[in-house]
Amino acid sequence: MLILSGGTGTPKLLRGLKELITPEELSVVVNTAEDLWVSGNYISPDIDSVLYTLADMIDEKRWWGIKGDRTLTHDFLLMMGVDEKLTVGDKDRAVHIFRSNLLRRGVKLSLTTEAIADALGVMQRVVPMTDDIVSTVIGTRQGVMHFQDFWVSLRGMPEVESVIFTGLEEALPCPGFLDLLEREDTVIIGPSNPVTSIGPILALTGVRDRLERKRVVAISPFVGNKPVSGPAAKLMAACGVPANDEGVAALLGKIDLFVVDRKSDYCGDCVRMKTLMRTKNESLAVAKGLLDLIECS
Fold first, then answer.
1. Which ranges in the chain are annotated with CATH 3.40.50.10680?
2. Does the model's pTM come out above 0.85?
3. What is d(CA 137, CA 129) in angstroms, rounded to the nearest whole number?
4. What element of type H or E holds 280?
5. pLDDT in tens, 199-234
């Protein structure tokens, strides 16, 4: 089973799935369009959130970073006048250093991800969407900025006028992604932001064409008419689609089974179930319901 993932909504689903299916049955391809360098280290926030979730290390209050992590290095850097975009924990930074040292030696991101997974004891296959550099750039009235500047530094406050993925036209799916698309019959699009988390994955050369031959199951990140978290509504409006399940379906494209929350107003062909995952038990319930739907459909 192949899961397409961003860094917040889909890891909550993975929290449940990993308890119900064996590691050999679960593979995850992760968005890398929000990656960036901070204080000399390469951060891949969505990959890290997926890895930490599968390793039972994720900070479940924030859904990024490592639970119980301290920020001594970050705090000392601030004292020295270094303005870090992200509040990076000390253990989290160690992972970034590990990755960055490999990247500087010419190791591709997909292989560095394998090395980190091995070091953390993650047995599921975790693959970046591409080994090439893709960046999410947000156009606002305050200027054009990296997604992390928009979402973290400015807390998503500016009005969004455009969303651009620099480098996407030249980027290719990494070999591991292509291998999974060849082998897996079912692809699950997780409940992550359809614009900036799932959008770049689907937009890679050849991905949508290959999905035409697969059974695609998608879970909406909306509960009612609101996203569970993140700036999805504002970004969707900038892309010219309604900020609801209808807009999610329009952005994702080919879907064979569309799962929406019970509170949804969506009128199209779908399956309704409770999709909010605030606790581990709720994640397990959603994961079990999803697996049952796939088996019966």
1. 2-133+168-296
2. yes
3. 18
4. helix 280-296
5. 999 999 999 999 999 999 999 999 977 788 778 889
Residue 32, classed as helix, strand or coil, is coil
Residue with tokens 């409770």: 274
Amino acid sitting at position 278: R
Chain position carrying tokens 């569970």: 228
Phi, psi of 138 (to 5 degrees): -105, 125
> Are 54 and 118 spatial neighbours (Cβ–Cβ below 8 Å)?
no
The b-or-e profile of 181-197 (16+ CB within 10 A means b, else e) is beebeebbbbbbbbbbb
Instruction: Evaluate whether 155 touches 185 at the Cβ level (below 8 Å).
Output: no
Domain at 2-133+168-296: CATH code: 3.40.50.10680
Q: Is the dihedral of CA 138, 165, 124, 192 positive or negative?
A: positive
The residue written with tokens 């960046």 in the block is 135
Other C-beta atoms lying within 10 Å of the C-beta of residue 227: 25
Sequence-distant (6+) residues with CB within 8 A of 145 are 137, 138, 154
Paired with 232 in beta bridges are none
Q: Which of 280, 15, 285 is nearest to 124 (CA)?
A: 15
Question: Euclidean distance between the first and final Cα of the chain, in Å?
Answer: 15
Length of the chain measured in residues: 297
Buried b (16+ CB within 10 A) or exposed e, 142-151: eeebbbbbbb
Whole-angstrom Cα distance, residue 195 to residue 202?
10
Using one digit for the tens of pLDDT, what is the confidence trace for 248-280? 999 999 999 999 999 999 999 999 999 999 999
* Contact by Cβ (8 Å): 17, 287: yes
Retrieve residue 111's tokens: 């292989």
